[in-house]
Amino acid sequence: MASMKITSSLALALALTVAGCGDDSTPTLDGSTATDGSTATDGSTPTDGSALSGDFPTAQNDIIEAGCACFFADQGFTTASDCVTGSAPSSDVAACSASALSANPGVGPYFGCLAAALVTQKSCYAAAACDTTAIDACDSAASDAADACTQPDAATATPYLDAINACIVGDAGACPDTTSAINTLGDAVFTGSTFGAGDDVDLMCTADTGGASADKVLQWAAPADGFYEIDTVGSLFDTAIQVQDGCDSTTPLACNDDAVARDIGLRSRVTVGPLTAGQVILIVIEGYGDTDAGDYVINIKDAPPPSMDGGVADGGAADGGAVDSGALDAGVDSGALDAGVVDSGAI
Q1: Three state DSSP letters for 232-287
Q2: Do the beta carbons of residue 213 and residue 289 sit within 8 Å?
Q3: Secondary structure letter of residue 106 according to DSSP
Q4: From 3.40.30.10, 2.60.120.330, 2.60.120.380, 3.20.20.20, which CATH number describes the 171-303 domain?
Q5: Which residues pair with 186 in a beta bridge?
Q6: What is the pLDDT of residues 199-229, one digit of tens each?
Q7: Which residues of the chain carry a pLDDT beneath 50?
Q8: 316, 306 Cβ separation under 8 angstroms
Q9: How distant is the alpha carbon of residue 27 from its chain centre?
C-alpha cells in the first residue's frame, strides 16, 4: 500500500512535519465550518481557540491508534500497542508543545481546525475497516481538510514555533557528542535521547523538511575490514540517520530517513563500506522533523557488500532515504497529521 508518512511530533498542539498545509480557503468538515476554529464540527461554538486546540492531542493519538490497529506490522512493530508507543509523541515533546500553546493561544484556532480534520479522518477509518484502498481515500480527504485550515500569520506563529524549537531541539550541542570511538557490534550499540540535544549536523536526506532537529553525533570504529549495516530499530520516534567521516564532512557516506522495509517502518537503515579495521566514522541520529525527538537505539552488524548496480544497499546514499513507508503514515506528509509543519514553514 502506498502510504504517507506519519511524523508523530509536530502536532500535539504542536507542529507536525508535513509539506504543505496550505491555503487559506475554507474547508467543509461534516458540513460545518471550522477553518478559523470558531465553529466545531458538531455545530457547537467553543469559547476560544485555545479550548479547541486542546482537542488536538487527543485527536492525534486517536488517529495513531486507529492506524496502528490496522497496520502495525507495516510500521515494524509486533503489536498494535507497541506501534502506538513508538509512534505517539513522547511525554517530553507533549509537555513542550502544551507549554508553547499555553503561552501562544493565538495558534489555537489552527490546531482546532486540524483536530476537526483528524476526528473526521478517524470516523472514515472506522468505516474503512482496514481496507487499504478505502483508507487511502480517508487520508486524501483528511489532507485536503488540513490543507484548507487557515494558518496563523507569521507574527502569531513565530513565537510559538520558537518556543517549540527551544524546548525540543535545545541549544547547540557538540560534534561529536561522544569522547571516544567504540567498535562494538550487535543490538543497542548506542542508546540515549536526542531530546534537547541541539541541532549540530544537517542531514542530506531530511533537507526537504526545512527545519532543525535535535541530533546526537556518535563515534564508532570498524572492528575489521568490511561493510556494516546500521539501523535505528527500537527508537521511539521517526528517525533519520547519516554516516560521515568527520564533523565538517560535506559528502556523507550514507543517509536514510525511512528504510522502506516491513520490519523497520519509519526507522532508518544504511549500509556503509568498505571500511578498514579501526576506521572511525560518525553516526548522526536525529528526527525527521523539528519535533521528532526522544529515546534512540542504534544497532550495528556485519553486512554483505552492496549490489553492483551503483547503489548502496538498504537506503544508503544512493537513494537518499527519500521514500516514505508504512500504512500508518496515515495523514502525514500530505495528510492531516502533517498539518502545520514547522519544518517546511507551513505555519
Answers
A1: CCCCCCCEEEEEECCCCCCCCCEEECCCCCCCCCCCCEEEEEEECCCCEEEEEEEE
A2: yes
A3: G
A4: 2.60.120.380
A5: 300
A6: 999 888 876 555 678 999 999 999 999 999 9
A7: 1-52, 310-347
A8: yes
A9: 25
Query: How crowded is the C-beta side of 79, counted as CA atoms within 13 Å?
Result: 3
pTM over 0.70? The answer is yes
Is 340 in contact with 111 (CB distance < 8 Å)?
yes
Spatial distance between the Cα atoms of 226 and 108, rounded to a whole number of angstroms: 53
- The grid coordinates listed for 12 are 500535539
User: Taking the CA of residue 97 as centre, how many other CA atoms within 13 Å lie in the half-sphere pointing to its CB?
Assistant: 27
* CA nearest to 8, candidates 207, 257, 209, 290: 290
Residue with cell 509512534: 87
Distances (CA, A) of 294 to 21, 23, 168, 173, 245: 25, 32, 9, 15, 25
Domain ranges (residues) in the chain: 28-167+327-338, 171-303
List, for residues 130-164, the tens digit of each pLDDT value. Answer: 999 999 999 999 999 999 999 999 999 999 999 99
Q: Note whether 258 and 328 are within 8 A (CB).
A: no
| Residue 246, C-beta contacts closer than 8 angstroms, at least 6 positions apart | 282
Across 214-234, b (16+ Cβ under 10 Å) vs e yields bbbbbbbebbeeebbbbbbbb
